[in-house]
Every structure is written in C-alpha cells, then in structure tokens.
Fold this sequence. Notes:
about 425 residues; alpha+beta; Jelly Rolls; Rieske Iron-sulfur Protein; 2 domains; 8-stranded antiparallel beta sheet; 6-stranded antiparallel beta sheet; about 20% helix; binds FE2/S2 (inorganic) cluster
Amino acid sequence: MTWDVDMQNLNLTETSISFxxxxxxxxxxxxxxxxxxxxxxxxxxxxxxxxxxxxxxASLEGIQQAVGQEKATRIKNQGFEAVHxxxxxxxxxxxxxxxxxxxxxxxxxxxxxxxxEVFQTQKPFYFEKEPNVRFHIPYDIVVKRKQEFSKFYWNGxxxxxxxxxxxxxxxxxxxxxxxxxxxxxxxGNGLNIYPQVHNxxxxxxxxxxxxxxxxxxxxxxxHLEPGDALIFHGEHLHSSEINSTDATRYVISxxxxxxxxxxxxxxxxxxxxxxxxxxxxxxxxxxELIVNTSRQMLKKINTILPKQNQNYIISPNAVCGFDDxxxxxxxxxxxxxxxxxxxAFDSQELPIGKIRPVSPKICVARLDNNQVVAFSRYxxxxxxxxxxxxxxxxxxxxxxxxxxxxTESGASPCQSLSKLTIFNxxxxxxxxxxxx
Length: 436
Ligand code: FES
Ligand SMILES: [Fe+2]
C-alpha cells in the first residue's frame, strides 16, 4: 500500500526539541524510531486503514446501550465533543463501560489492520487484549462526582492521569502506544508527553504517582482531528491534560509490541497480551489459532520454559532501573523548610522565563515582558509543585496536567478550582522582594 501520510515527528536525539519540526520517515522505520523516542502523528490514520466509520458506529452502539437511541442520535449529529451536553453525569460510567465492551470485541481486527499498514510488517505481534476508551468531559462538570471518579479504575479513562511511565502499571517496557482521536482533541484536553524524560525511568510513589519533588521539562501537546493517531513509546513520561475546554475529548487507545512483550518482574497483566499474525490469509489464521491455543497452555508453565520458548520476557526491575539523577531536569533550589526562605534576592538570580521557589509556600517567576510575579506554590488541582512548572503566554503552567494559571488573577480556565494566591512583589535597585 502506498502511504499518503502527513507525519510529523520529533527526533529526540536533536538538542533543540520542537514539535514544529515536520518531516516524513519511512513507514518501515516507524516502529524502530518510536522505540527510540520519536513521537509520530498519522493524520486520518483510521480512515486510511478503513476503520473510522466502523469504530464510530461501534462507539455510538455502546453509547446507545447506555443511554438509549435518542441521546445516541443526538451525539451522532453533534459529535463526540457534545457528549457532556447530552448525557447526564450519572450516565457517564455506563457510557464508558458499554462503549469499552463493544470496542474490545473489535480490537483484534483493527489492531491487525494497524500493524499491517502502519508498521508495514507481516511479522507476528502482540497486542493488549483490553484497549481503552477515554471520555474526558470538561473538568468543571466531572468534578461534581469527584468521589466516584477518583477511584483508580477511572484514572485516565474519565479523570486525568498524572505523569507516568506505562511500566509503572505493569505494561511491557517495549510497548507502543497508539492513541486515536475519535472526536477533535485540542490543546487543553489532550495528552502531555515529556520528551526530556525518555530513556530515564523515574521512580514513583507506592501509589504509582509521580513524587512531589520530581522535576522534569515541559510537555509537548497535540491537536488531533477525528481519526488521527498519535503513536509513542509507552516508556515516555506522559499524562492527560486536565480538560479545561468546553468539549468532551473522546479517544480510543491501545498498546502493542512487535517483539515479545518485555515485562518487568511481577507484572499481573502479562497474560493479557495476545499473540497475533498480521497476515490474514487462511493459513495465517490457522497458525494464529494454534499459537494462541498453545500459548494459553504454555503461559501456565512459562516460567519453567527455556527462555527462547517463552511467550514473553521478564526482566528484573534493575534492567530498567530508575534514573532521576539527570542534570537535564530543572532542579529548583530546594526550599523545604522555613530556614531556606529567601524572600529578597538579586535580580540576576531570576532570568526571563525562570520560576524559582522562595519559601515552602511561594514561588516567583520572571515573565517574557520582564515583569516579576509571586504566587502560591501548589497547584489548586492536585497540588503539584509549580516550582517545576513553566511559563506560557503570561501564565504559569502546571507540570502535571498542563493547567494554565493567570499570573494576574491566579485564575485558571477551570472555574471550579480555587484561584492561586498572587503576592505583592517589587523589584528595585536590582533586588527582588516578595511581600508574603
Ligand atoms: S493541573 Fe493537575 S496538579 Fe496541576
Ligand atoms: Fe499511559
């Protein structure tokens, strides 16, 4: 098949990392380059492999099962972006679960089509049995049922995921993530990928979260139209943006590996990867059936098989060790106790674009127009340390879910979140002083 793809990719080996770089890469190199950290967008991917209408219909079928024909028809007419305007909030979990069931039954077929056409390979591959459907309705609405949706089960499906590597959640370290927009995805309800962290596996808390004092560079964000696929290595640090728009963002995502899945030790999900032939000839179908059946038996005795016969690889955690020591990450001056407080300091210590913590509760920053601002240090959403954030368009941007907060008013686009306190701050005779 000749590809007429509009690919944007990011070569992480280059020092100036910018998503503005646009160039094509040969389709047979995509998988290799993704595992080396490049992020690829294939525009109209689903349409090109002939699956857009099928998945759109399947999604509407799931929605209809949950909320009835009349609402499903309105969503069909107004687009998935209008889901939150049409369904009741108490129907959201059912919409998600029912749609998931319908999509799951289609996963083997469309995973095969994706692998065959996108990666231009006929080799067998492994895909996750359980793809995800992700309905992110605007935060100001979903927060009304905060208690229900704060359960881990909804993390990333309905509520925004914090920064993570997929292997924190027992996914293989060689997994490729395919994140497909079913409706429009805009900046403000999409995905964050932190390119500086690729190949540096960060530690996580026992709850599987990013530690508060872990800093990393700013995120890449993406605008996607329906059918576009964003493809990236699951070991990239990534998170969801908090939905600060007035549109529902609906995405289907799946993971696969082109070689045997490489799990770290103690991976409860390792049995949920299915072996599949790409080629759909009769002979291949028979082979797949035999391989999958024998795999079902073999997985029970996998650990006692010689390595070359195992259906997956298990590496000790040490092989993919934690690394948070890189000097690439901005490390703000630690201000953790009252003794460290430094509310007055030399102007030179705060160049344009820099955020600096000055007490356990306050940060200062110098904006593009040279103005110095001081604000409370922790994000009103989930308390991320804004000392690790960055500045964009006169706003402080939270590093965890990319929420922009005004340096003038302390407000964000999410009305239900409290405002950040803005402190008075002066700059005279090359001295910055914060009045707390
Ligand atoms: S936006 Fe989520 S913690 Fe800041
Ligand atoms: Fe993830």
